[in-house]
Amino acid sequence: MVFTNCFAQVDDSLRIVVVDTVKLSQLDRLNPGDKFPPVYFYNLKGEKCGSDSLFKAKPVIFITGSYSCPIFRYNTKRMYKDIRRKSKNYDIYFVYLLEAHPLAGSPYGRLRDSSRQNKKDSIFITQQKYMQERIAWAAKARNDFNINARVLVDNENNDFFLKFNASPNSYLEFSSEQLLLKRRTWYYKNGYMKPVKRKVKKPAMELKK
Predict the structure, then answer these.
(1) Which residues are paired to 150 by β-bridges?
(2) Contacts for 17 with CB less than 8 Å, ≥ 6 apart
(3) How high is the mean pLDDT of the chain?
(4) Rounded to the nearest 5°, which phi and psi values hold at 67?
(5) pLDDT in tens, 144-199
(6) Could you give the CA distance from residue 204 to residue 111 in angstroms, rounded to a whole number?
(7) Distance linking the first and last C-alpha atoms of the chain
(8) pLDDT category, 10, cuts 50, 70, 90?
């Protein structure tokens, strides 16, 4: 199946900024002990929400992803099974980022455009140009992968992606005081993990609030 971005109405004021791959390579990672940067998100209704509304009494876990990332698609069930047991002690959010492996326009450069695994799975996604499109794909990911958690969508400036230097399938844990405690890329309970080459099967995610 070929997935495309087809929307009758878009708000040109919410056009997504194209990520400069040269600048991306020069960014520093957010390190443990660093303060949560000032960023805002959109929810699936298209409403803005700031970090103040995310941090309450509990520590916070952010899981990132995008539909075009095969590793995110393949490992969500294992990843969220491990995270689910933490849901009573943490507020957990899923953050939808820009597409990692679209047909063209990967933030990691042209060599990372539509991946080999995406071609095998016949999943071809164009990089979103407007926030309405990104929000719609976030909603599709929630439904297709049964993400039973609050879904946040990175803003039109890609602030979460750039300021955290995040990648799909990453894990970030913050204290209730908004300080970074842990960060993992390709998260699994044992640390780094290798992708499992399999087709996406529902339910791919199981997470209780």
Answers:
(1) 93
(2) 156, 157, 158
(3) 81
(4) -60, -30
(5) 887 877 899 999 999 999 988 778 888 899 999 999 998 887 665 454 444 444 45
(6) 28
(7) 32
(8) low
Tokens of 159: 């602030």
Residue whose tokens read 């539909």: 67
What Å distances lie between residue 5 and 2, 10, 125, 151, 175, CA to CA? 10, 11, 7, 20, 37
pLDDT at 168: 81
Tokens at 25, concatenated:
């390579």
